[in-house]
Design a protein that fits this description.
homodimer; alpha/beta; six-stranded parallel sheet; 12 strands; 41% helix; 15% strand; DNA-binding
Chain lengths: 348, 348
DNA sequence: TTGTAGGCGTTATCAT
DNA sequence: ATGATAACGCCTACAA
């Protein structure tokens, strides 16, 4: 008895009115007598009625579902990067309150036997009302296609331009700047950086901030002090070893992600270097564990949950405002959190 | 031209056959001439056709979507606990390969104006083919209702019994045992524990393992050496302070989660205790950062991604095997990872 | 091999 | 205020 879904038709039968009336009653239309509405609602509760999303979607062409592309790339399980979780928290929370559920795209091929299909296709297939994308390089071709379409699309840390698209990200340039300025101020003159992926805005921007910081401190830019990373631990460790093996090794390193900073910490330990005595380290993100890394990781805090919340709001706005018009891209401020991994360079 | 979805009808019109034929061609039925099938498929690709999930769901009553309940409770943003992310990685990966997408339930109330509705209702509303639940206490009433229903349901770290339900979890008892045995073996005799929530199986089981370990080491169980926690950092820190303030403080603490162990580390630092000199610590989970916590956290590793994968497989099996019959609950082995936070007790 | 038509559960447009 | 009825896009007998 419990196993079969109760439909609007069932409600109609039981309450003795037509299915049209039931629908109106349920949806709070005005032109329905208080008596019948009450009866229908009552019945709906008793029978545990829940509208069939599929049917409703079919006719209204709205699903109340927001798609999420969070790529679990080959060697890069983005879902594993702590940054995204916190964003997801904000996103889920905001969207949930707005009455939306999240569809996490996982399947590569459509239901039919056709081969892979594009992100846009997947969105259309599920009729998502909008999409959030994160972790994608900004030159993802399918993302461009998606952005050009009419499906509202907001990127987190990924620039997306289109008729109904927008994006949110932290002020990464400022962050890179603050990190570097902090080191300059402590008296460091040999400051290196380990970049994030340069096919992402955060990667590029943080590097730019670093250069700004150097310039401001009247320190020359040295190619050998700039190493590539991919936001994950291991890349940080490897890059740090390279840097520390230099003839004139840096006395401070700005890693464009806390995870990479953890790698640097590891490398320092492996070389018997003390932090911050022999080496100062600044990270980026302020992940949950930053305080527990080494003597406490000095880092640039970004409001990760806030990014999710903001993205969620942008999505809600895009979905509500029938008239297209993409929301303004949002930039959230960052701040320096000073902990134990930074100090003045060793006197020599 | 790109903005309007191409439907099966459109394909029919363009290819000059009936919509029924198109459907059959698309779905790989045998009774379709090779010629027409080719023509239809070709057209479908050109026009970027993707079947409307809603329509298909309506008629087949299958959605190719798996629901996920990952509760972001009040003070407990479960989505923020690193454990779940890794599980999610495995889940998403496995299910994705099986052709399923994930619906992350976020909205509390149904689309109509009715109030909140039960988990079961939410599943039915979206016609999810199955559900994965994690982070819920096993006495969640709505979970029981869900499990009793015909919707296949598999729990991760939460026991769920029902006609089409099952669950996967690590061998938590063994884990608690190993952790304690390790400390016993090092020579500790005053071993305390900080439990996880006792309304969860992992919480209860790890505690049981701890008791087993004590017994095996011929150490008496002392109530004062058992403190409650909730798997998060702060609870670990608070409990550790209580323990360390005891007249006869423990020389070792087994924290039933790495996050709580991080809290213990923090408390130790606050009291000027050296680890492992003054205090040995064992965690549970082996989260990504365990190696970077303090001098490297000794912990019980559980295969988090494996839990997700296993859960995913159970779901795929449940969905495929039309004939109900709940899969066997699975238990994954754990292992001790020895790092820097454990050592023999200080001689005295 | 292919076309026709009914139905899945809702909403929305007409009448009444 | 309420009742028919036509979509929505697709699948699936049933005919042809």
């Amino acid at each position: 008895m419990d196993s079969t879904r109760t439909t609007i038709k069932e409600l109609a039968r039981r309450s003795g009115v037509s299915i049209g009336t039931v629908s109106r009653a349920l949806n709070g239309y005005a032109d329905v007598s208080e008596a019948t509405r009450e009866r229908v609602l009552q019945l709906a509760r008793e029978l545990n009625y829940a509208p069939a999303a599929a049917a409703r979607t079919l006719v209204t062409s709205r699903s109340n579902v927001i798609g999420v592309f969070l790529e679990t790339g080959e060697g890069h399980p983005d879902l594993q990067h702590p940054f995204f979780h916190e964003v997801l928290v904000g996103l889920k929370d905001t969207l949930g309150k707005g009455g939306y559920d999240l569809l996490l795209f996982a399947s590569e091929s459509p239901q039919g036997g056709l081969g892979e299909h594009s992100r846009l296709s997947r969105c259309r297939q599920h009729h998502v009302d909008a999409v959030a994308v994160m972790g994608l390089p900004h030159d993802d071709a399918q993302l461009r296609e998606l952005a050009r379409s009419s499906v509202p699309c907001v990127g987190v840390d990924v620039e997306v331009f289109g008729p109904a698209s927008s994006y949110v990200m932290s002020d990464n340039v400022d962050g890179g700047h603050r990190a570097t300025a902090h080191l300059v101020q402590l008296g460091h003159r040999r400051i290196a950086t380990i970049c994030g992926r340069l096919d992402t805005r955060p990667g590029v921007d943080r590097l730019r901030g670093y250069r700004d910081g150097l310039a401001e401190g009247a320190l020359g830019y040295r190619d050998e002090y700039v190493r590539g990373g991919d936001f994950y631990v291991e890349s940080g460790r490897a890059a740090a070893h390279e840097l520390l093996a230099l003839d004139e090794p840096p006395t401070a390193i700005f890693a464009a992600a806390d995870l990479m900073a953890a790698g640097v910490l590891q490398a320092a330990a492996e070389r018997g270097l003390s932090v911050p005595g022999d080496l100062s380290i600044v990270g980026f993100d302020d992940i949950m564990h930053a305080a527990h890394l080494g003597p406490g990781l000095t880092t640039i805090r970004q409001d990760k949950t806030g990014l999710g919340t903001t993205a969620g709001q942008a999505i809600l706005a895009a979905v509500a405002g029938e008239d297209g018009g993409s929301p303004e891209p949002a930039t959230l401020p960052v701040s320096l959190v000073q902990r134990g991994t930074t100090g003045p360079p060793a006197a020599r």
